[in-house]
Automatic annotation (TrEMBL):
Residues 24-270 form the BAR domain. One of its GO terms (cellular component) is cytoplasm. This is BAR domain-containing protein. Pfam families: BAR. InterPro entries: AH/BAR_dom_sf, BAR_dom. The lineage of its organism: Eukaryota, Metazoa, Ecdysozoa, Arthropoda, Hexapoda. Gene3D superfamilies: Arfaptin homology (AH) domain/BAR domain (1.20.1270.60).
Length: 304
């Protein structure tokens, strides 16, 4: 219990010291330890990577799942590790209604038959879209989210810890300067100025060591962003290839539909074509109408 109280008091003192140091830096009354230019460049690239990865992730999710409500629902199901609902796409709903209408109008009619064929096409397009969304989530969305939730969160945590170590270091530097300025003066608390100076130097050495160690850890993590970029590039290439295959499948489906509708239209045109006409003595004769023989047109009169 005593140990916990002491630790609590020590942590509270450290937190207060950091707040004071940060406030003095804001007011310009205290110096701040600056990191080297290479480290700052790494940190800036990390921030840029986080910003654009989050934006690209949101945009890609909006393309794959345009309905915001569905995106929220999918997110919640992923968090609780449950299978996403198997909802139909708009294309599939359109295909179902077209097929139902075609059957209602009659598959034997030209319009009903065409509706059924186009509806089946929409169903195939919807299935291709579903396959594309699944593949894109696997090859692109999941790796980006994993990077943000894993590596990037670790970097942010370590950078925050580094900032705390930096505040501790600068606070120790300030205490050391004050201890040196008090040499030869009587301390109100009755503690020798030499003892205060020795303690301040010791605290500074410890703070500097912890700061240097944390800076090295954070630097290694920041340098790992280059490897992350290489991994994101591979994921981006896979996403583009998946999209190419998806559009190629859709193109093939539409070409097949075009041929089917073309053959149906040709058959309809042949069935509804006007009957051929024969011109006889400047008059047109319908060849589909039976032609009476001249003999049948003769009238005979029998005389007694």
């Amino acid at each position: 219990m005593d140990f916990n109280v002491k630790k609590l008091v020590r942590d509270a003192g450290t937190a207060l010291s950091r707040v004071v140091q940060l406030t003095e830096e804001k007011l310009g009354t205290s110096e701040k330890t600056e990191l080297d230019a290479h480290f700052e460049n790494l940190a800036e690239r990390s921030d840029t990577t986080k910003l654009w990865t989050e934006k690209i992730l949101r945009d890609t999710e909006a393309v794959l799942t345009p309905n915001p409500g569905n995106r929220v629902e999918d997110f919640l199901f992923d968090k609780i590790e449950k299978k996403r609902p198997n909802r139909l796409s708009n294309l599939e709903y359109l295909g179902l209604d077209m097929m139902e209408a075609g059957n209602d109008f009659g598959p034997g009619t030209s319009y009903g038959n065409a509706l059924i064929k186009v509806g089946q096409c929409q169903q195939r397009l919807g299935q291709s879209e579903r396959d594309f969304i699944t593949a894109a989530n696997h090859c692109y969305i999941t790796p980006l989210r994993k990077f943000l939730d894993g590596e990037m969160k670790t970097i942010i945590k370590e950078r925050s810890l580094l900032e705390s170590k930096r505040l501790d270091l600068d606070a120790c530097k300030n205490r050391l300067r004050k201890a040196r300025s008090m040499q030869g003066q009587q301390n109100k608390e009755g503690v020798s100025p030499e003892v205060l100076l020795e303690q301040a130097e010791k605290d500074l050495r410890v703070a500097q060591s912890e700061f240097d160690r944390q800076a090295e850890i954070t630097k290694l993590l920041l340098e790992g962003i280059s490897s992350s970029h290489a991994g994101h590039l591979r994921c981006l290439q896979e996403f583009a290839e998946t999209q190419v295959r998806y559009h190629a499948q859709c193109h093939q489906i539409m070409q097949d539909l075009q041929r089917e509708l073309g053959s149906t239209q040709s058959a309809c045109d042949s069935a509804s074509a006007p009957a051929p006409m024969l011109r006889v003595n400047s008059e047109e004769v319908d060849l589909t109408t039976p032609i009476m023989s001249p003999v049948q047109d003769l009238q005979f009169t029998v005389s007694d």
